Amino acid sequence: MISSLALTRFMLVAGVAFQTGPQLVHDGKLQEALDVFVRGVEASPKSLAANNGAGVVLDLLGRYPEARTYFTQAIKAAATPLEKAQAHRALAVSFGFARDCRGAGKADGSAYQYFLEAPDFYSAGEVADEAGRLCLDSGDPDTAYDWYRKGHDAGMRETNIPPERKDLWDFRWAHARARIAARRGKLEEARKYIAAARAILDKGTNPDQQVYFAYLTGYVAFYAGEYKAALTDLQNAVQTDPFIQCLIAQSYDKLGDRAKALEYYRKAANTTAHSVPAAFARPFAARAAAE
Are 271 and 282 in contact (CB under 8 A)? Predict the structure, then answer.
């Protein structure tokens, strides 16, 4: 039986990990945050939150193998199938930081299968799209294509799916195919899918997706070598997105404006998000800024 003193100590340490750790990460105090989460794991080895928190910080610090050790422990600590699926998604992002498409696909594949069987086809589609994005950003457009196709097909399986949801999945599929074509150097094909995405948006069924169109056109323009056009479009995308910041920095770099490139590289390198966009942007921007 745990003593009252030990229980009090556990509650204090765990409470600090759950409350202080995320704030320290947000403030960019990564080593302090890691110390807090590690103490949380030591106090409660099966704590999902503490293990996940330690993994997040280690990814942000570029210590990827160590991070995956904690994410694996978080998966084992998950109390429900849903928690386990969410923990697998965090592990997939961790593989994304290391630009490991295969690892990301395996981790997201577990979550994808869970949502298919739930059945929650919308979430299954989102997980597959997530794996597609991680693979594309890791430089594997072929595997990315397969995952994005799975995402579209899963999303469309939703029972009594409303027309606007169909349009959403069609937009995402066109968006993905345009980016993949651009990465393959097939620019005419990319522009064909841009036109398809524009036509879907023009229906007016998904106005919240408009901002992602600027990301798409800027992305394709960048890979077409049209760096001024890329900048114009990307400046209408989400400016707080570290991936967009990284693309803007790369565009300035290609145009020979190193000062502006560094400004945006530093923004992207300083993100404390543990997300699909950050998985590519933070490590890439940190290296580019250092060079």
Answer: yes
